[in-house]
Each structure stands twice: as C-alpha cells, then as structure tokens.
Amino acid sequence: MNKPILLSTPHMSDRELEFVKEAFDTNWIAPVGPHIDAFEQEFCQVTGANHAAALNSGTAAIHLALQLVGVKYGDDVFCSTLTFSATANPIVYLGAKPVFIDSDRVSWNMNPDLLCESLTDRARKGKLPKAVVLVHLYGQSADIEAILKICNEYEIPLIEDAAEALGATYKGRMVGTFGRIGIYSFNGNKIITTSGGGMLVSNDEKLVNKARFLAAQARDPAPHYQHSEIGYNYRLSNILAGIGRGQLRVLSERVAARRRNFEIYQQTLKNLPGLEFMPEASFGYATRWLTCLTINPELFGTDREQIRVALTEQQIETRPVWKPLHLQPVFAGYESIGGAVAEDLFTRGLCLPSGSNLTIQDLERASDAISTVYDSKSKNRTFSIVDR
Ligand SMILES: *Cc1c(COP(=O)(O)O)cnc(C)c1O
Fold first, then answer.
1. What is the DSSP track for 129-179?
2. Ligand 1 pocket check: which of 164, 289, 354 to mutate, most ligand atoms within 8 Å of Cβ?
3. Would the pLDDT of 386 be above 60?
4. pLDDT class for 2, splitting at 50, 70, 90?
5. What values do phi and psi take at 19, rounded to 5?
6. Please, what are the domains in the chain?
7. C-alpha span between 168 and 288 (Å, rounded)
C-alpha cells in the first residue's frame, strides 16, 4: 500500500517545541504573554510591516480589518472572486455586500483593468464600495501598484488578503504590506502554521491597537469590566505564538522548498501536452505555496476531474483550483463583475501536492501518476482509431 501524499501539511522545525516549552515553564498559557509580543515584532521584521496584531485566525483578521476601515451594514465591498470563501464571509458577517471581481491571466488574481472600469462606473453613479479586498492567491502577488493606484484615486481602503502568500514579494517588497491593512493566516495548510492563527498588519499604529482592543473583548481601561463597544475573542494564544516564532525562523527555507517542488513538477511534466503551469507574474516573486496547473482536455486527452480521481485512487491528494465565489450557492444573488477567467481556471485548474516536507520521491510519484493517466488516454485514442 502506497503512503498517502497530501496537498499541504504542517512542517515543524526543531525550534517550535522550545518556545512552547518556555510557555509551559513560565505558565504563560493564555491569550496574552511574551511570545505574542515577540511574534508580532518578529513578524514585522520579516515582512517589513510597521505594526502587527496576532489573532486566532486569518478569517478573524479579515473581519476586524473590514470593521476597522469602516465597513457597515448595507455597504458594498469589492472582492476577488477566485479565492476561498473565508475572504468574503466576514463581509457578510458585517451585513455588507460582496461584489466579486474576475481574475486576470497574468497572476490569476484580481484584474486591475476590470477594477478600474467598475470603480469609474460606480463613481459616476455615486455608489463607490467601502473597501476592496484583494487576494494574493496560491503564493503569488496580485498587480498591487495598479490596484492601489485606482483605490487611492477613489480613496477606497485596500485590504490585502495575503493568507496564502506570506513570503511572496511584489517588486521586492512583501505582499500584505501595501494596503491600509494586510492579513495572513497560519492555518495548518499554509506555508507556516501555528495550527490555527492569523496576523493583521498595518502602518497605522492606531488601527493595529484598535484591532488588539477589539480582539480582546473591547475592554475599556477601568479596574472593573467595562465595555463601550462590542468586542470579539480573537487573540492568538501565547502557546501558539510560540509555535509561530519557531516557524517564522524557517520561512525562507519553506519558500525555497515549495519553489523546488514547482521546479520538479515543471521538469517531470514538461513533455506532456496540454498542461500549463500557473504563470509567475514579472512584477513578483511567488512562493508557489501550491503548484497549480491547468489542463487542456483536447490536448491532454482527459480533463482535470479524471486526473484528480485517478490520483486519489493512488492516495495522491490533489484539489481543483478554488471554485469562484460568484458561483458559490451561498453567494448567489450578489453582484459579480466578469467571471469567465476565474470560471475557466476552476474548470481546468488543479493543485498538486505541494508541502515543503515532500520528498523528491513523493513528487516523482505524483508526476508519474499524471504521466500514467496521459499514457492510458493516448492508448485509448489509438485503440479507438483501430476500432473504427
Ligand atoms: C486560509 C485562507 C483564509 C482564512 O484563514 P484562516 O486562518 O483559515 O481563517 C482567508 N483567505 C484565504 C485566501 C485563505 O486561503
């Protein structure tokens, strides 16, 4: 029986346990403590952000970010359509309405031209959105400068969802640090993990302090418990921040390993027709958090779904590219702008096993399995000609 090869699993170094042990030894088993402060500071050093608040998920970070830029009931919020539902769910938590924007082919992220057109149109109608949530998908930066320029023109705050893109850069600078607020995730499948966790960053210290305040039940400064605002229980625990400190120290190794995965797939699959890897846009350096490709069924002989099923039978986990949010039943009825590119990437796109802990043998087994699907299909093609 072959051992399972999974999409993306946690990959600890030898440092995390030391930090966790320190938390135990000092009895800082709480959502406050020295690891949290240190994790925030070290995160700023690594990303170049000025201020950071450690939270218990990326979703919580998006929720607070939207609230901090003033999103309220009934507002419109523009949002990438090709992403995980957690990008848009918090828009709905606040009673606001997501408007989904299609991808471009260069980065698979939000199409700046489409954003520009629709904001111009909205400005004319006096119906500008309250915020733009920009996703950096699969470890690749969106075209940030173009998008930021348009947002600045209309004075719309940009929130960067860099949950999948810690370590990726845009023109040499870390993604997540360009917008009014950036968010990251340390969920178990991300490039580094605290088992669950997130970070909110901004260059505006007041915003980040407010995020910490809201995340800790919005307690007023008083000796008794007093509250003037509705708060949340969104702080990261000191133990998990310890794991994060260990993980942060190996981030660049994790990026290198994921990029190596990509290169091996590219080498081993290069002779198969109809496969096209997610491009790396010229403006950025991608982490290749997941290696993704699209399949042209006419050239390859079979479609994405048949490849996925064949690999599952061999205990190799792959996953379709995100189903665009404008196609999700839960978001039916919300507006979308374009969508054909994201739909095509979903229909033909597949994410391959991409963990930084995969061996060369694992990667070759996954590649061989894809080649085998191709070979069996090309045999069928020959037989069908003979049959006729
Ligand atoms: C993982 C992810 C999130 C949510 O992060 P959690 O920490 O799991 O809450 C948000 N957006 C994107 C694009 C993600 O991939």
1. -SEEEEE-GGG----HHHHHHHHHHTT--EEEE-TT-TT-EETTEETTSSS
2. 164
3. no
4. confident
5. -65, -40
6. 16-250 (3.40.640.10), 252-387 (3.90.1150.10)
7. 9
